[in-house]
Amino acid sequence: MSPPRQTDASGSAQGNPACPKCKRDFVLRVVPEGFLERVGGLLSISPFRCQLCTNRFYGFRSGAGVAKQPMDRRQYVRFAVRLPATFSGEARGEGTVVVLSMGGCAIETDVRMPAGKVLQVRITISDQEAPVGIEAGVVRSVRSGIIGVEFLRLVQYEKDRLSRYIAGLLLARKNVTGTK
Ligand SMILES: [Zn+2]
Predict the structure, then answer these.
(1) Last residue of some domain: 18, 48, 75?
(2) 176 lies in a domain?
(3) CA distances (Å), 52 to each of 6, 31, 127, in order?
(4) Relative to the CA of 132, which of 41, 150, 160, 177 has its CA 20 to 30 Å away?
(5) CA atoms of 99 and 121, how far apart (whole Å)
(6) Domain co-membership, 60 together with 92
(7) Ligand 1 centre and the CA of 68: distance in Å?
(8) What is the residue-averaged pLDDT of the chain?
(9) Residue 10 and residue 175: Cα distance in Å, rounded?
(10) Rounded distance from Cα 177 to ligand 1 centre (Å)
């Protein structure tokens, strides 16, 4: 018997595996890379990316509903936010984080810089605690006053803090499947 088509309103995606590292199931199925992963796809084995601890792992897709989930070319769910930020390193200044994920952020800023600059970024997630520090991020895109920064290096402590913050956003949104 085939289950009725279900809309995913339950938070984490139906049938997705839990992250083997942190045991939570806020995971996103991601695009297979390379020959072996594509072969794996035929066997219903897919790469997944944990949205909280950033672990990439393999899991079995199960059920028709899961197979129909869109794969997201992005590795992480991104959230619209407005958080004050400062940056230093190869460019220095301040701005507002307008998009945030475990993998990077977009910062609205008046500071002009070319792509490729490596920055340290400090993001104020709460006025109760110190900003989250990104040890190294690279500017991947620059357009109309917004720079896109990919996180290259976070110390574990800061990664955990960012992860907790993102978990709060995920729970608030109740949707990690990347559906539009
Ligand atoms: Zn995890």
Answers:
(1) 75
(2) no
(3) 25, 18, 22
(4) 177
(5) 14
(6) no
(7) 23
(8) 83
(9) 7
(10) 15
